[in-house]
Automatic annotation (TrEMBL):
Residues 308-318 have a biased composition (Low complexity). Pfam families: Rcd1. SUPFAM superfamilies: ARM repeat. Residues 276-318 are annotated as: Disordered. It comes from the Eukaryota. Belongs to the CNOT9 family. This is Cell differentiation protein rcd1. It comes from Urochloa decumbens.
């Protein structure tokens, strides 16, 4: 009996995937499949390897582009697009579909949503769900993913959202930056030039100021983790000995972090580390991303402080 129920469940799921290619059935299929994302282990495989399915999801996403500027997006259209994005997030998160997902440059389809500034809930929902696609990629401990995100100019997009978004979108954007920095390629890229480093440091400092007025333990934890990871670069370490916001040093956030021992531990670890001597060995050589493999997915813009030539030497971070 249990196997029979399982077989029926799989048949229904497969039928829903097939329904994505039928315009009149797609809306319901998007809703139902979105509900199954957390319980189906192989949904990503069915979505990626079934004929025409990814094209149908992209059609849903592209169809709302004209409503982004000027902002005329209807809530119903935004919901359908978000359901399509949620299914793409499933594909991005799966270890067997992540690499072909990147090679097909599918993530570039979310960038128009990240570039929006509309304050309506429908726009914010699209931004957060789009960030979720990139966040699913960033979770993977994969240098290929990090290089893709760096060359796609994801960091500038995330920094803008970290400065102007809602608490949720700020949290997801900061998480993505944190995960990029977790990889050595990402950290070296961020710390390769003083312009790039201080751009990120400025955004983080402004977030700390805002958090003193409207505390968010979850967001603050990600900010602290970004600072902590930056201290692993000798040049950034030296700069942060004088540039770390005072409110992180003087106990301002003790109440905010009281119920999150891990976040409190990260903050204490950061303060202890900055109290010690700096390392004398900066990362050698040029930015490995700027001089690495060909760009797998050109982003919405080229150049900028994150794509320029690297400079080395601790003095550049003073």
């Amino acid at each position: 009996m249990a196997q029979a129920v399982k077989d029926i469940k799989m048949t229904l799921e497969e039928q829903l995937v097939l329904n994505l290619c039928e315009s009149e059935l797609r809306g319901n299929a998007l809703v139902e499949l979105s509900k199954k994302r957390e319980t189906s282990n192989d949904l990503a495989l069915k979505l990626w390897y079934s004929f025409g399915t990814i094209a149908a999801l992209l059609q849903e996403i592209v169809s709302v582009y004209p409503a982004l500027s000027p902002p005329t997006l209807l809530a119903s259209a935004a919901t359908r697009a978000c359901n399509a994005l949620a299914l793409l997030q499933t594909v991005a998160a799966h270890p067997l579909t992540r690499t072909p997902f990147l090679k097909a440059r599918i993530p570039i389809f979310v960038f128009p949503f990240l570039n929006t500034t509309g304050e309506a809930k429908s726009f914010e929902h699209l931004r957060v769900t789009s960030l979720g696609v990139l966040g699913a990629l960033a979770k993977a401990k994969d240098t290929k993913v990090v290089k893709f995100l760096l060359k796609s100019e994801v960091i500038p997009l995330c920094l803008r959202i970290m400065g102007t978004g809602s608490e949720l979108s700020k949290t997801v954007a900061t998480f993505i930056v944190q995960k990029i920095m977790r990889d050595e390629v990402g950290l070296q890229h961020i710390c390769a030039t003083p312009e790039c480093f201080f751009q990120i440091a400025s955004v983080l400092a402004n977030m700390v100021i805002a958090l003193t007025e409207q505390p968010s333990t979850r967001l603050l934890k990600h900010v602290i983790c970004c600072y902590l990871r930056l201290t692993d670069d000798p040049r950034a370490y030296t700069a942060m000995q004088t540039h770390l916001p005072e409110s992180l040093r003087n106990g301002t956030f003790d109440n905010c972090l009281r119920d999150d021992p891990a976040a409190m531990h990260f903050l204490q670890q950061l303060l202890d580390k900055l109290a010690g001597p700096a390392s004398v060995d900066p990362h050698p050589g040029p930015d490995p991303v700027a001089g690495g493999a060909p760009d797998p997915a050109p982003g919405p813009g080229t150049g900028g402080s994150h794509g320029g030539p690297s400079q080395t030497g601790p003095s550049h971070m003073h």
